[in-house]
Design a protein that fits this description.
Elements lengths: L1 H5 L22 E3 L6 H16 L2 H6 L11 H4 L2 H29 L5 H4 L6 E9 L9 E6 L5 E5 L5 E5 L2 E4 L7 E5 L1 H6 L9 E4 L6 E9 L5 E2 L17 E2 H13 L13
Antiparallel strand pairs: 1-7, 2-9, 3-8, 4-7, 4-9, 5-6, 5-8, 10-11
Bound molecules: 2-oxoglutaric acid (AKG) and fe (ii) ion (FE2).
């Protein structure tokens, strides 16, 4: 994979095992040997944990109700920390786009499908989730059950509390050292005309250790039109979903999540 990052357009070197189907067992891929330096992975988790250990007053300085407001304050007081988070976000974006190239190849899309239409992968959001040890894990979750709204999410995790739902059963995704967990989001499910499916996941709590994870999401711009890729539509495989602008989908996604409805259901076509 290291080679891939520097020779992105030459996909002939990709071993078949990197191309679809990913992990058909659980619908969630563990990505190793990806070329992002191990030290950078550890450093970004360390910087995140340091931030979370700050006092509530210090963290409040970086707080904003506005989701468009970036949290630059903490890392910008320290050049080294800014470098870590900056380099990490660049590397993880490169890797995500590379992965989307491979997914596109696996689906039979034209080379560069995700990157040539720059609007499709214009936005990157990084988030962190922190769960302190919980005296009674049966009483609460770290993150409730959901599927991601975007194209792909790369999660760094060290503690095994991430679970995915498969055939009505929750399965724990065991962390592998220096690996990313890759989750497919609803936007990619629509583009792939259902060939790839977003996976429902949640984070449970545990009694013994605190857990911190760092997730990076690749999303379209708000005005981007999302629809099943034309090359995937044939007499034998009609479109499964209506198109939408990403902004409209974000709105209905939030509404449907609150009402516990599957967010792509209202866009489904009768076939
Ligand atoms: O913390 C994790 O392992 C998962 C995070 C996640 O699912 C999310 O932020 O959407
Ligand atoms: Fe998620």
């Amino acid at each position: 994979m290291e080679k891939l990052l520097s020779t992105k357009t030459d996909l002939k070197i990709v071993p078949k095992s990197y191309i679809l189907p990913p992990d058909s067992r659980l619908g969630s891929i563990k990505l190793t040997n990806h070329g992002v330096p191990e030290k950078l992975l550890q450093d970004v988790l360390d910087v995140t944990e340091e931030f979370l250990k700050l006092s509530a007053e210090d963290k409040a300085i970086a707080f904003s109700e506005d989701p468009k407001q970036s949290c630059g304050l903490y890392t910008s007081i320290d050049y080294m920390k800014e470098q870590v988070v900056g380099s990490y976000s660049v590397e993880v974006r490169k890797l995500s786009l590379c992965l989307l190239d491979l997914i596109g190849k696996g689906l039979g899309l034209v080379p560069g499908y995700f990157q040539d239409k720059t609007e499709l992968t214009e936005v990157q959001i990084m988030s962190t989730a922190h769960c302190p040890p919980c005296p009674d894990p049966s009483l609460t979750l770290g993150l409730p059950k959901h599927s991601d709204v975007n194209l792909v999410t790369l999660v760094l995790q060290e503690v095994e509390d991430l679970q995915v739902l498969k055939d009505g059963q929750w399965h724990t995704i065991k962390p592998l050292p220096n690996a990313f967990v890759v989750n497919i989001g609803y936007t990619l499910q629509n583009i792939s005309n259902g060939k790839l499916r977003s996976v429902e996941h949640r984070v449970v709590t545990n009694q013994k250790v605190a857990r911190t994870s760092v997730a990076s999401f690749i999303l379209p711009s708000n005005s981007c039109q999302i629809e099943p890729a034309k090359v995937l539509i044939k007499d034998t495989s009609p479109p499964l979903y209506n198109g939408f602008t990403f902004k409209d989908f974000m709105g209905t996604y939030i509404e449907d999540i609150h009402q516990k409805k599957p967010p792509l259901e209202r866009y489904k076509l009768q076939v």
